[in-house]
Amino acid sequence: MEALLPRLPAAGPALPEVIPATGARRGRVGLLTGCVQRFLFPEVNRDTARLLAAAGYEVVVPREQPCCGALHLHAGRLDEFRRMARDLMAAFARDLDLIVVNAAGCGSALKEYAHWLPEDVAAEFARTVRDVSEVLAESDLPLREQRQTVAYHDACHLAHGQRIRQEPRLLLKKIPGLVLVELPDAELCCGSAGVYNLLEPRIAEELGRRAVERIRRSGARLVASGNPGCLMQLSRHCRAQGLDVEVVHPVSLLARAMRDP
Questions:
Q1: Mean pLDDT throughout 36-60?
Q2: Candidate CATH numbers 3.30.420, 2.60.40, 3.40.50, 2.60.120; the one for domain 149-257
Q3: pLDDT tens track for 14-42
Q4: How far apart are CA 126 and CA 143, in angstroms?
Q5: Is the predicted pLDDT of residue 209 greater than 60, yes or no?
């Protein structure tokens, strides 16, 4: 479990609760900061907020937002999951057009709230949830050229749980000069799968090894994936196999290419 942890970043300032749009205004969205993302990959949340603002969205980041309950749902702890889901919906009970999520596992759980919760508000809430790639793929962003080769790994909760495959690729292709290469069997699990790599480490180890071998064959020096669990799993196995690649969230690559307004 310790081998999965990335180097913890220094605690930076919290995101403002309201971030104004810097591009032509398109709407008002709430940003889910997530538990793993918030503490292990806070730069992904900062990059997400910056890109959404540049795309014309006012971004609301509720300070009191709790865990979405995804990992409790995976573990079958449904009473705790339902309590967390209700608390999260209450935190986002504001005048918002969409709820934007940058962690595939969280997004998949939020979109399933209507299945697990009987109240009408759960169905209304679930209809507003979007992965960040769904929102930004439709936006125009001022991007600089980045001459890099990137392999994209489909997070299971994005490709299978939410059926989102093309949007992250379209998003990466917006970056001028970037070459996107497809991994063989890109939709195969990397072994993270929520808490699977903690509960079934032997099988997860083999899946991680196979994922890294696919990355090695691609020749890419960057790997993008839209879920923090995948980022940790792929990074850990790349280190273990001596493969010198950087594993990042797609929004991080877009943020690097963003021109200042």
A1: 94
A2: 3.40.50
A3: 899 999 999 889 999 999 999 989 888 99
A4: 31
A5: yes
* Single-letter amino acid code for the residue at 46: R
Domain locations in the chain as residue ranges: 2-136, 149-257
Query: Do 135 and 100 meet the contact criterion of CB atoms below 8 Å apart?
Result: yes
Q: Which residue has the tokens 């309590």?
A: 83
Distance CA 41, CA 59 (A): 19
**Distance from C-alpha of 30 to C-alpha of 93, rounded to nearest angstrom:** 10
Token pair of 23 as six digits: 């591009």
With 0-12 CB in 10 A as exposed, 13-18 as middle and 19+ as buried, what is 17?
A: exposed
